[in-house]
Amino acid sequence: MKAGYIKTTLAAAALTLAAIGTANAAGCIKGAVVGGVAGHYAGHHAVVGAVGGCIVGHHLAKKHAQEQAAQRQQMRAE
């Protein structure tokens, strides 16, 4: 039981340290929360879900920002 808490704490610390080095983490927090909850209910894999959610959330936020930039540029061209 204690080993599970230690692994979870180490994984959370690693995720935190990885996020500190990343200045542009748009979408990561929301994705990590959703992924963590989903992972928890899908077999107690909250940390794996949080990491996956962070990756997907960041990707979707980046894609959304690119679409908005393209739309703004198109508006300026008209």
Automatic annotation (TrEMBL):
Keyword Signal: yes
Highest rank taxon of the organism: Bacteria
Keywords from the UniProt entry: Signal
Signal peptide: 1-25
Protein name (Swiss-Prot/TrEMBL): Glycine zipper 2TM domain-containing protein
